[in-house]
Amino acid sequence: MDFKFSPEQEAFRKEVSDFLEEEIRNGTFQPMCDGWIQGYSPEFTGKMAARGWIGLSWPREYGGQGRSETDRLILTEELLRYGAPAACHWFADRQIGRSIIAHGTEEQKQELLPLILKGEAYIGLGMSEPEAGSDLASLQTRAVEDGDDYIIDGQKMWTSCARFMTHVYLVARTDPDAPKHRGISEFVIDASLPGISIRPTIDITGSEAWGEVFYDGVRVSKRHLIGEKNRGFYQILNQLDYERAGLERLMGNYPLFEAIIEFTRETERNGVPLCKDPLIRDKLARLQVEFEMGRLLTYRVVLVMEQGRAPNVEAAMAKAYCTTFEQRLASVATEMLGLYGQLVAESKWAPILGMAPHSYLGSKGYSLQAGTTEVLKNIVATRGLGLPTE
Questions:
Q1: Which residue, among 56, 91, 94, has the nearest Cα to 72 in the 3D structure?
Q2: Which one-letter DSSP state was computed for residue 6?
Q3: Is 218 helix (H, G, I), strand (E, B) or coil?
Q4: What pLDDT band is residue 239 in, cutting at 50, 70 and 90?
Q5: Do 246-384 and 7-121 have the same topology in CATH?
Q6: Separation in Å, CA 381 to CA 28, 97, 295, 370, 376
Q7: Non-local CB neighbours of 307 within 8 Å, separated by 6+ positions
Q8: Would you say 50 and 2 are in contact if contact means Cβ atoms under 8 Å apart?
Q9: 184 by DSSP, 3-state: which?
Q10: CB atoms < 10 A from the CB of 133, how many?
């Protein structure tokens, strides 16, 4: 089996990497872990938009480049490899734009897609709720019809991009009497509407990448309903495959991976580089093998997408595996650095910019984001292997 990329694809990869290296030299950004969700840089997003790299695989009729999912994978891989600050446009490009293309009205497409493509719409994800956990169908935020509008009341937790979002993708219950998997609808609304208040959620790493968002009598025009009323849950299922399948579940901490390898080459113990220690070599080799396995699982997802199928099982499998890899990477890196591995970036003694403790602390939530590992394993078991649910 030939896993090689075409000469055109390799040229595109070099174009992306050259651009990112130039931006680093110019001081636009410094490589960071979780830059895709914590790296807020309107300047960088603007440069991505100017190159047509937002909406790269969207249809040309909607302003995209019409390029393959493999091209988008190459772009994503390089952004993560260099730890680029892509949070402003990540969610809109990855899934919300696709959802609007698939289910939105022409008016919504004409209004929202150009803003995303120009890097001017930063869209937060309003899914999780305090009492719903990973069971999205249990959400209680209500959208009640009132003439030509909906009145929205409720609370969302872990809204990605909350502190700098211009728009929010919101999932709300529009029929409280329907079975829980029905009666749910999708909206994309202006984040500055009256009645919306945001309280940043500072996580254990000190990041404000998420927030609590409260909706208190928010009046929303019906034209902001995405797709069919009460069919939102079924529309979401396909969108979640894109959220779970991405390389960010494998390479979100890739700068740490490269840094720890370089650290073992440069650091000596008793006059011998750490990378010569058999135990260290074994750990690094195992990480490299596991990384390549995760990479192939994500490539498989892209292959399924290019065949025109929804990568439901494949995405669940990739995300469950890649999450485990990132947690192991964080643990191994912290262990290799010894007591210094606990020092955060603010300390002048912190090795490799304090990335290890940042990754270690953040990794505790990786198996919850975008669906718990338990939920993903159930998807693989029931939909992939055909095992009974009881």
A1: 56
A2: P
A3: strand
A4: low
A5: no
A6: 45, 30, 22, 18, 9
A7: none
A8: no
A9: strand
A10: 13
- pLDDT band at 238; cut points 50, 70, 90: low
* pLDDT for position 136: 75
CB 89 within 8 A of CB 105: no
The pLDDT of residue 133: 65
Question: Which H, E and C letters describe 34-56, residue by residue?
Answer: CHHHHCCCHHHHHHHHHCCCCCC
CATH class of 246-384: mainly alpha
Alpha helices in the chain (DSSP H): 7-25, 35-38, 42-50, 69-81, 87-91, 97-103, 106-117, 232-245, 248-251, 254-266, 278-306, 312-337, 355-363, 373-379
Domain ranges in the chain are: 7-121, 125-230, 246-384
CATH architecture label of 125-230: Beta Barrel (2.40)
Nearest to 139 by CA among 97, 100, 185, 104: 185
Q: Could you please state the CATH topology (level 3) that the domain comprising 7-121 is classified under.
A: Butyryl-Coa Dehydrogenase, subunit A; domain 1 (1.10.540)
d(CA 268, CA 252): 28
Rounded distance between C-alpha atoms, residue 188 and residue 235, angstroms: 14
Are 154 and 166 in contact, with CB atoms under 8 Å apart?
no
Enter the pTM of the model.
0.90
More confident: 367 or 48: 48
pLDDT in tens, 256-306: 999 999 999 999 989 999 999 999 999 999 999 999 999 999 998 888 888
